[in-house]
Structures are given as structure tokens and as C-alpha cells.
């Protein structure tokens, strides 16, 4: 085989690889007009090399942020260095539909990209070459993993039955607020509440009815919360609410509103209508408390007084009691 034939064969192989390789290859001149467009780009855009030849990139693909891409490419032209983009920074350069069955949930193709300069015989950069990598599988797997980790983290601090914070996370929040109040002159109040005669509900109607009552009251708690309040299920039928930046008088108004809303509930279980009430105890933070547990004990004492005083009432703790 002659040397000319070998060279022709090599060019043929190179062109074949250029068209069939599973990455996008795009060459632009320095005016951002398309000069080269391989098979990958044709397959995903639906545009042939003939259709895009000499077209201004940003007219053809309006989803590309022109200012951003020019800032990315300027150093490539001036310094003759490569540049890279990754999907975590920007999901794609060319918005192509995702076609992979495994990652079918993805709305579009996630892409990484390498941009490097092409120089003439004098060493002047005349063109830019873009290599587009489809990284949808990696991106979707990472996103799903992060989402799952987020859900697991949320589950680890959430009570399954009520969807309020569980005791561990709520108590840690209380401790953090206690430490903040020891440093700064703010006011916050702790509210503890307990379902009255809850054992009677379980004994009469069963634990499924008891669970329904707990959930319904948790909903009532949520409806009466403000954005800054932190509520948790403290025990079986006991709830705790940290009222941030709230003095005792303000907290008493909120507690009374919660008490009335629970008193007015009609909880339907099978053919029965269940009526329940809440006893509530309040304790405002004061500097004499040596730890957050003393704050809890103060609110618990107020709650006990509500129980002892006839239930279905709000009691505020006083250090003189």
C-alpha cells in the first residue's frame, strides 16, 4: 500500500471516529461561529453540520448564557489554557433532552465540558474546541443520593407519628436556645402540654384511636405555630413548644389559643366522635437557671399545676411557687 493510500485510510478512520465517538465535538472560530459539528451533536440537537455551519452560536442556542461563556473562553484565547465546566456549576451548555432509559427521570442531559484553544501555524489562537461529555448518569445518581441523605437526616430528627420534631432533636434545639439566652438579653418561653385523660381514650377505643388523637393535636399545634416556634413530641401524649423571642404574657395568649382550638376539635374515629382537651404549662427563661433542664422542670411544674387544678387550662410558672 502506498504512503498516500495509508494517509487517506488514516484520515478516513479519524473522520469515522470523529463522527461516531460518544462525546460532542464542536469547533468555533473566535467570532463564535460554528465550524465543526460532529455526529453526537447532530444526533442530540437534530441539526446537521450543514445547517449549523457558520451560524452564530448564541443565535442558534438561546439557552446559552453568552456573557458567562465569553468570560469562560476569554482566558482560553488569551492565555492558551484549557478551561473546564462541570454540571455542579452549570447543568449543561447545550440543552439536550435526556435519552438514557436508566436516568429517564432527568429532564435534560447533564454535561461536563472541556474547552481548549486551536492555533494556526504561527501560534495564534484561531478557534475554540468544545468537548461535551454526557454525565447524566453520574449527576442523577449524585442528586438522588444527596436527596436520600437529606430525607434520612430529616427522618432522624422527626417523630414518625406526628411529623413534629422528635424529643432528641427538640431538646437539642432547646439547649441551643438556652445557651443563646445566657449570652444575650432576650426573652423566650417554653410551653409543655399534655392530653387530658389520654389513657381513657386508649382503654375505651384502642391504640389506633389514641394515635389518631395524637396526630390531630399535632396538627392543631402546627396550625397555631409561628415561623420561629419549634415544636416537638416530648413523650407519648406530651408536646413541647419553644416560643422564641416571646415573653410569658405573649406565650400565654398563644397557649390559650391552642387550648381552645383543641377543645373545639371533633375527632372522628369509625362512627365515634372523640373530644379531648389539653393541659398546658408555661415557663419563661430566666438567668438563674443553671441549665436547660431547669427550664424544662419549671414548665413541667406549671403543667402539673394545670393537671392538679382541673385540667384543660393554662398555668404560668412563677419562681415563687
UniProtKB/TrEMBL annotation:
Any GO molecular function: diguanylate cyclase activity
Residue ranges annotated for the GGDEF domain, each copy included: 186-319
Listed Pfam families: GGDEF, PAS_4
Reaction catalysed by this enzyme: 2 GTP = 3',3'-c-di-GMP + 2 diphosphate
Top EC group: transferase
EC code(s) of this entry: 2.7.7.65
SUPFAM superfamilies (alphabetical): Nucleotide cyclase, PYP-like sensor domain (PAS domain)
One GO term (biological process): negative regulation of bacterial-type flagellum-dependent cell motility
InterPro entries xref list: Diguanylate_Cyclase, GGDEF_dom, Nucleotide_cyclase, PAS, PAS-like_dom_sf, PAS_4, Rev_trsase/Diguanyl_cyclase
NCBIfam families linked to this entry: GGDEF (TIGR00254)
Protein name: diguanylate cyclase
Species classification: Bacteria, Pseudomonadati, Pseudomonadota, Gammaproteobacteria, Chromatiales
